Amino acid sequence: MEDVLAPKASVIGFIGLGVMGGSMAKHILDAGYELHIYNRTREKGKDLVEQGAIWEEKVADLARKCNCVITMVGFPRDVEEIYFGSQGLIENTKHGTFLVDMTTSSPSLALRIYEAAERKKLHVLDAPVSGGDKGARDGSLSIMVGGKEDTFKAVLPLFQVMGKNIVYQGRAGSGQHTKMANQIAIASNMIGVCEAISYALKAGLDPEKVLASISQGAAGSWSLSNLAPRMIAGNFDPGFYIKHFIKDMKIALEAADGMGLDTPGLEMALSMYKKLASLGHENDGTQALFRLYSDKE
Amino acid sequence: MEDVLAPKASVIGFIGLGVMGGSMAKHILDAGYELHIYNRTREKGKDLVEQGAIWEEKVADLARKCNCVITMVGFPRDVEEIYFGSQGLIENTKHGTFLVDMTTSSPSLALRIYEAAERKKLHVLDAPVSGGDKGARDGSLSIMVGGKEDTFKAVLPLFQVMGKNIVYQGRAGSGQHTKMANQIAIASNMIGVCEAISYALKAGLDPEKVLASISQGAAGSWSLSNLAPRMIAGNFDPGFYIKHFIKDMKIALEAADGMGLDTPGLEMALSMYKKLASLGHENDGTQALFRLYSDKE
Question: Is B243 tagged catalytic?
Answer without folding.
Answer: no
